[in-house]
Design goal:
about 220 residues; alpha/beta; about 50% helix
Length: about 220
């Protein structure tokens, strides 16, 4: 390596713009590893037409780093209205913009794992500053899972951020989780109902837009 090349490399490493670019690239890689294909769900490609309030609150949650104050969010509503999209966008931005130690977990999928594997997934969540619990539904009503779910909420009480999504109503969620966990959520969380047309249906319509109108798809 020539002296000139060495000098250029040292300059690049000391350049604030290069450092900023390198840090963001490194954080982006970490976000991709955590989110997988959900990494491509961002605030930029979210359609806020039916849920402007949820969209604005999600962005403010990130810009204020609200998880540092122990603030939680819960998005509830029907399938396909963008709840998972917003959870993913929050986690992505928290990691890339602030280097937050964050994790995304789909609880419906966890409930299908073996006991030891599921327990390990849930136990490790306490190590993070911000966690997303996606798809909280009746699947988690298994007796062995509830104590571990409560421990998560207990560990994060006034310590870090939890953002959640559920297709259940708030009343149904309370009945599912019980009074102890519901009290924790009521103490720390802002609940936002999401409505509108299914984004999945819109995606499907785009994918089959090449079919002539009037063709029978039954």
């Amino acid at each position: 390596m020539t002296d000139e090349l060495s000098k250029n490399m040292v300059f690049a490493l000391e350049c604030p713009l290069y450092k900023s670019f390198y840090i963001k690239e490194e954080r982006s890689i970490r976000a991709k590893e955590i989110l997988g294909y959900l990494f491509y769900h961002s605030f930029e490609n979210f359609s806020p037409q039916f849920n402007p309030k949820a969209f604005e609150i999600a962005k403010e949650y990130v810009s204020h780093k609200a998880w540092e104050n122990g603030s939680w969010l819960i998005f509830h509503g029907a399938y396909g209205v963008g709840k998972t999209h917003l959870l993913s966008a929050i986690i992505k931005e928290a990691i890339i913009s602030f280097g937050t130690k964050a994790k995304f977990l789909n609880l419906a999928k966890v409930s299908t794992l073996g006991f030891e594997e599921a327990k390990e997934e849930l136990r490790n969540l306490s190590d993070y500053e911000l966690i997303a619990l996606d798809d909280i539904g009746i699947e988690i009503s298994q007796n062995w899972l509830i104590p571990y779910i409560f421990k998560i909420f207990d560990d994060f009480n006034m310590k870090g951020g939890i953002i959640m999504s559920t297709n259940l109503s708030l009343k149904a969620l309370q009945n599912l989780l019980g009074d102890r966990i519901s009290d924790r959520i009521a103490e720390n969380a802002i609940a936002i109902e999401m409505k509108g047309q299914s984004m999945r249906q819109n995606l499907r319509n785009n994918k089959i837009s090449w079919i002539k109108k009037g063709d029978d798809l039954k």
